[in-house]
Amino acid sequence: SSMLPVLYKELVFETQAVIDDGLNEEHRLLTMRARPKILVAHSFEQAMHYFKTFKPNILGVISDARYPRDGELDGRAGVDLLHHIKQERFDIPMLLASSEPHNGELAVNIPALFADKNSSDLHDDIRSFLLNHLGFGNFIFKTSDGSVLGQANDLYDLEIKLGEIPLESFLYHSRNNDFSRWLYSLAEVELAANVRALCDEDFDSPELHRQHLVKMIKTQRMVRQKGVIVNFDKDRFDPDTEFLKIGNGSLGGKARGLAFFSAMLQRNSDLFKQFDNVEVSVPQTFVLTTESFDSFIEYNSLEELVKKDLPDEVVSDYFSRSEFPEAIVSELTVFLKSIGYPLAVRSSSLLEDAQFKSYAGLYHTCIVANDHPDIECRLSQLLHAIKMVYASTYYRAPKSFTQRVGNKTENEKMAVIIQHAIGSRHGRFYYPAVSGVAQSLNYYPFSHVKTDDGIANIAVGFGKAVMEGENTLRFSPRHPEVLPQRSSVDDILKGTQRQYYALRMGDSTCEKEITDSTSLEKRDVSGGLEEYPFQLLSSVYDPVEHKIRDISTIAGHKIVTFAPLLKHRMIPFPEIVDTLLSLGKIKLGCPVEIEFAVDFGTNANSKALFSVLQIRPMSAREEMLEVEITEYDFAQAFCVSENGLGNTINSEITDIIYVKPESFEPAKNKQIALEISKINSTLLHEGRKYILFGPGRWGSADHWLGIPVSWEDISSVGAIVETVHEKIHAEPSQGSHFFHNITTLGVSYLNVNDGLNDRLDWNWLECIPVIQETEYIVHVRTSKPLTVKVDGRSRTAVILGEF
C-alpha cells in the first residue's frame, strides 16, 4: 500500500507529459485511454492470471516477496512469480520488494532489481525503476557499459537520433526491447507491439534493422497526423505535420473544408489504392486562426476600418504599416526555418466557402517563393502577404458582396492559410504541371454528357488562369474523350494554351511587398516547351499534313493538348477527379467544387502528386420552385436560352444594360467594364436591379475573352446574359471565381449562343427608352417589369417584357 501512491503519482506525471505532446484535443483524449495501467493482484493465482491475460502488453512487474498462494501466505510466492515471468518474457523489467534484506540475493538470481521496504529511499528506488527501466520519461541512449549518449523526448526526436547514434548503442537497446517499452509508455501501443516483434535475425545486417525501425516510426508519425488538426508548438514542432494551426479561434471556411477533406481522404484511403502511381493528398497546411486576426486588429487599433468606406489602396496602406504581436512573429519564424518550399498565402474567412453564401475569389491570395537566403527577408515577405489577406477583409468588393447576401462586415473575421505551393522548379521558374477546378454539376453539358457527370477546367502552371476565366481546357471527368471545342485540328490550334503562370525563383533582392503581380510571371508556353511537364502534356503539329500527333518526342511544333492525360492515361487523371468529386458529394451531402494541382516532378523517376487545394459546396439549382415555360413564353420572349443557370421566376426588374454590338471592340473591354461600373453604382444607390447583356466571358481576367468586371462593378445585377459576337470567341464562364459567386447569389445566368433554339432580339432591345448611353453601352428602362424564367430541370430560360 505504501508503493501505490508513488506509482500513481509517477504514472500521472508520465501521462501528463505524453498528453502535453498530443496533436490536438482528440488525440490527447485517446492518449488518456491508452495510457499505462496499474493492475493490483492480491494472490499468486491472480497475478498469474493477469500475466497470461495481458502478456503482450506487460511493461513491468513489481512484486512483494510474501503473499498468499493456494490460500496461505508463501514467503517464496514473489520469487517464483518473477522466475516464471522471466522465463517467458526475458525483456520485462522486474522489481522484488521485501522487508527481509536476504531476499536481495534471490532477486539477483532471477535476475530482478531489489527494493528494501524498510529503506528510507524506497520511494526513490521505485521512481528510479520506472524511469530507468520501464521507459517513463525521455528515452536515454546508452552503450552496453552504461555510458549515456543522448536522449529523445518524442517520436520525431527518436527518429532523428536513431540515425545518429552508434550501431553498438542501437543493438544494445533493440536486443533489450528498450524501444518497444518506451513506445508503450507513450501509448503508441500498435507501433510498440510491431517493434517488439523484430529481431536481428529478420535482417541481413544491423544497419538494415535500424533503417527499418526508423521507417516504421516515420510511417507511424505520418499516419497519426493525417486528417488531424495539430496545435502548433514551436518547442515541439514536427516539420512533417500535415495540418497545423496557431490559436484557438476558427479555421475559417476554406481551411475548415480543407481539414475536413484531409480527414476524409485518410478515412477513405482504400478508394485511392487503385491509383498506385499517383499520391493523392492535401498539401502541408499551416493556419493562423481568427484569434490571430483579432489580436492583430486589436494590437494595431484597426477596429474602426470596418465602418469606413475607404479605397482598397488606403486600407492596404493601413495594414501594411501595422505590426504583428511578437508571439505570432516568433511562431512563424520557427515554422519558416523548418521548411524550404514556396508558399501560397490564402484567405479563409468565416463566411468563405459557406454553402449558398460563398465568397470565392473576393479576398487576397499570394504565392511567395520563400527561397531568399536571409530568414529575415523571407519572414518579412510572409508577414506582408498575411497583412494583405487581412486587409482584403475590408476591401470594397467583399463589403459589397456581404451587403448583398445580408451579412454584416463587422461580423466577418479572417483566418489565413499558409500552404505548400505544389510544383517543381524548372530553371528560374517554379510551377505545377496542371492546375484546375472540378465541379460536381456541369451547367453546360455537351454531346452525351449529363449534368451530373461533372466538369473540370485545367491549365498548365498555377491556377490563376483557371480562376480568372482565361483560356483553359474544359472536359467531363467521366467522358474525357468528348471535347467539342477541339473537334478539328483548327479548333485545337486555336484553343491551345499559349501562356501560363509560373513563380519566379532566386531573386537576390528582398522585395517586401510581394503580390501575385510581382511574384507570378505570365510566360509564353513556347518558352517552356522543353521543360519536363510540357513533354507530358504536349502533342506535335505537322503543318505539312495538317495533323496533330500525340507524341511529343518527334520533330515538329509542340502544342499543349493534355492528350497524354485525357486520352492516353499517362496517369488515371480523369478517374481521380471523378472519384474525388463523388466522395466529396457524398460526404458533404451536396454538389462540390474542388481546386487541385498536379505535379510530375522533374524527371520520369518522380511519382505524380495530385493535391487537393480546396473543397467547397457548389451552389446547386434550387428545386423548391416548379418553373413552367410554356410555348407561348417561347414565342413571346425576346431572349431564349437553352443554357440557363438557376431556377427562378423574377418579375421585378425594369432596367437593362447592354453592350452595343455595332461598336464592340475586345480591345476596349476594360473601358466597357468601367462604364458598366459607373451605371451599376447609380442603380445600387437607387436599389434597382438590372439585366446585363454582353459578349464573351463575363468576369474574365483576360479582356480578350470577355469584359473583365469584378463583383463590385456589377453588384446590383439581377441576371446576366452572355451573348455571341464575331469579334470574340470564348467558352462560358463556368469554373471561375466570378461565376461561382454569381451562382451563389442566385443571379440567373443565361448563355445565348448559336444553338438551334437560342434567340436574342436586338431590335426589340433597341426600341426600349434610353436612360443613359455611352460610347460602348446603353442603359434602358421598360415601363413594366420584365419576366425572367429559368427552369433548372431543363436548363431552358426566357426573358419576356413590354416597353
Helix/strand layout:
Layout: H1 3-20, H2 25-34, H3 44-54, E1 61-64, E2 67-69, E3 72-74, H4 77-88, E4 94-98, H5 103-109, E5 113-116, H6 122-133, E6 139-142, E7 148-152, H7 155-162, H8 167-175, H9 178-185, H10 189-196, H11 206-225, E8 230-231, E9 243-246, H12 252-267, E10 278-281, E11 285-288, H13 290-299, H14 312-320, H15 326-338, E12 343-349, E13 365-368, H16 375-391, H17 396-404, E14 414-420, E15 424-426, E16 429-431, E17 434-439, E18 455-460, H18 464-467, E19 473-475, H19 489-495, E20 499-504, H20 516-519, E21 520-524, H21 532-535, E22 538-542, E23 547-549, E24 557-560, H22 563-566, H23 573-588, E25 592-599, E26 608-617, H24 631-636, E27 639-641, E28 643-645, E29 648-659, H25 669-686, E30 690-695, E31 717-723, H26 737-744, E32 748-751, E33 759-760, H27 762-766, E34 770-773, E35 777-791, E36 796-800
Parallel strand pairs: 1-4, 4-5, 8-9, 9-11, 10-26, 29-30, 30-31, 31-32
Antiparallel strand pairs: 2-3, 6-7, 11-14, 12-13, 12-14, 15-16, 16-20, 17-18, 17-25, 18-19, 20-21, 22-23, 22-24, 25-26, 27-33, 27-36, 28-32, 29-35, 34-35, 35-36
Helix pairs in contact: 1-2, 1-6, 3-4, 7-11, 9-10, 14-16, 15-16
